[in-house]
Description:
mainly alpha, 0% strand
Amino acid sequence: MGKNLQFSELLDCYGELLTDKQRDAIDLYYNEDLSLAEIAQDLSISRQGVRDSIKRGEEALTTFENEIGLLKKQKAYDSFLKEILLLAMSLRAELSAADSPAHIQEKADGLIKEIESSINILD
């Protein structure tokens, strides 16, 4: 069972929809990088039980993403915000080069800060 780190991201989006056992096993496996044996010991279940919980959880997370698409939408939104940020920074550079009035440059700086804070929320 190779580790697909996308499941860590899917867990952030849909983890509350899993059973406690599935969520805990996937969290320990992907986020804490524990082995199946270590997880089995922590959760007081068999190694096979851990593997089954992880597999069922992965299947559920994949189904949720295929049907809802929240992670895909979040990544598209993040990409869009980064594009807007680059455009705003380019505009600020052009305003500075054109010796624009200070209040226009301040508005551009404020816009950049707002976009950056929106991006930081997503990270």
